[in-house]
Amino acid sequence: MPQNPLHDPSSRSSAFIRFGALEVRITERGYAVFALRPFKRGELVLRVMGEITDEQDIYTIQIAPDQHLQPLPPAKFLNHSCNPNLGVKTSRDGIPDFYAFRAIASGDELTFDYAMTEYEIVASDVVCRCGAEQCRGHLGAWRTLPTAWRERYRGFVADYLLDMPL
Q1: Percentage of residues in the chain having pLDDT higher than 70
Q2: What is the pTM of this model?
Q3: Which residue among 20, 69, 102, 136 sits deepest, i.e. has the most Cβ atoms within 10 Å of its Cβ?
């Protein structure tokens, strides 16, 4: 029986797995999540589920100063962009769910700015490869995000960040 291509990073086929109106695909940059239908600004795109941990890694989403969430797919495979089409709104459970930050067309890759959930990023010197016109050049965090960007993201960031010192 062939191995599931989403669990085999060496596979670069056009394999995909669907999650309702979303699809995880393997692209030339690795795993990515795509919309299978359009979404309007402010519309819920993805409720996030996963295990809470106190350890940060490349897949976790920060939910509090000392807590991270190890998200289940498809949220696990959302990529960063300095021009994201997703933002977050914190649920009553304290988990950041993903909402359309701007209109999303069917077929668009779904991305968010990691600074919308991360107060600090351990490897802040990681080069950003998002390709956005206004790319900052590196992955950023809320603490070091320029004021203009924080204003732009108003209403689409994890609640706990608003109580953190800058």
Answers
A1: 90
A2: 0.89
A3: 69
